[in-house]
User: What shape does this take?
Amino acid sequence: MALFRYPGKKMWWYEFHFAGQKVRESAKTRSKEMARRAENARRRDLEESYHGLKKRAAPRLFSVAAEEWLTLKRPSLAERSYVIEQANLKHLLPEFSKQLITDIDSKDISRYQQERLEQKASPKTVNLEIGTLRAILRRNRLWAAIQPDVRMLPTRDDIGRAVSPEEEKKLLSACGRSRSRSLLPAVTLALNTCMRYSEIRLLHWNQVDFSGRAVIVGKSKSEWGTGRTIPLNARACAVLEFWASHFPGRQPEHYVFPSERYGAAGDDFKACAYDTDPTKPIGRWKEAWEAAKERAGVQCRFHDLRHTGCTRMLEAGVAFPVLAMIMGWSPATTVRMAKRYGHIGQAALRTAVESISGPMLASKPERTVSEAKNAHGSFDNPFDLNREVEGNVPKL
Assistant: This one.
C-alpha cells in the first residue's frame, strides 16, 4: 500500500494490489490522513464485494419505507398512476407495514400472492401490487437478493374485446338518453380517438385544436403517451364542436368535461345540469356508464372502446408505427400491445390470406384443386399452378 502525490499536484492518491490487480485511484483530498482512511475504506468495499458480503439497508419498517418512496415518486407519476400506487399500498400495508424491509423475503411475497388470489384478486392486480413492493425494495437495495426466487403470476393478454358496430349503435343510443349529458360525447370521443379514460376526463380546451382538427393529450399513463397529438376524424370533430357550443364562455384552461350536478327535468332519462365548475374535471362516469350499458344490453368496459378503435385501425391496414403514435405505446411494447388490443375479425384474416395469391390467381377462385391437378399433372413442383399466367408476370 502506498500514498503519493503527483509532482505539482496537491491531491493525494493511493495504490495497492487486490486479487492480482493494481488499484490506483485519487483520494480526492489534500489531507494525508483522510487519504489513508479513504484507502482503507476502498479496500474494505472491494473485500466485502469479493466475498459477497452485501451491506444491509437500515432496519426500517416497511410502512416508513413505503411512505418515503411514494413521496419521492409523486412528482413523476401521472394522476392515474399515483392513484394506482396508493391502491396497491392499501393492500400491501396490512401485510407488511410492521415488518422490517430487511426481513421481507420470497416466502413472504409468495404467501401474499396466494392470499390475494384467495380474495379473488386477478393475477394482473396482484402483479401490480408486487411491482410496487419491488420498487420499494429496489430503492433500498434489497430486491436483487430475493429476485431469483420471486415469480410473477401468469396473466392473460386476451382480456378486453372490440365492440361490434351493432353494439356501438346501441351503446351510443343509450348514452344519449343518460342523465349525464357528457357521457355521449365522452364515449364518442373514446371510440374515435382511442384515448384513455383519464386522458378524456382531464382534457382541457387548450388541448383541442379545432382549426388543425387534432387533440393534444396531456399527462398520460406513460411518457410515450404524454403530449402525443391525435388527429380528429369528422365524427370526433363534430361531437367536440357540438359539445363546445354548450360552453360559449369557455376559457383555454377550463376542462372539456367539467364537474357538474344534475336535477330532474321531466322523465327518467333527462336531467338539467347545474352547479357547473369548469375549473374542476368531472369526477367519473361510472354510474352513468353502467346504466347506459344495462339499457343497451351490452357488456363491455369503458377501456374496450380503446380496444375497438385499435382493432378497426388494424383491420384497415394501419401500420404499427402509426398505430403506436396514436395509442401512445413505446416502440418496445408496440407488437405486444397490438396483439392485446387488436381483436382482428375473421373477415380481415381471410382478406389477408387471400392477398397472398395475388390478383392473377385470385381472379379464378372457382377453380377446384382437382381441376388444377388435372391441368398440370401433379403438385410436385409448387410453381406448376403458375404456368398458365407465366407470360403475364412482369420481368424483374
In short: Strands lie at 2-4, 13-18, 21-26, 208-209, 214-216, 229-231, 258-264, 271-281. Residues 2-50 form one domain.
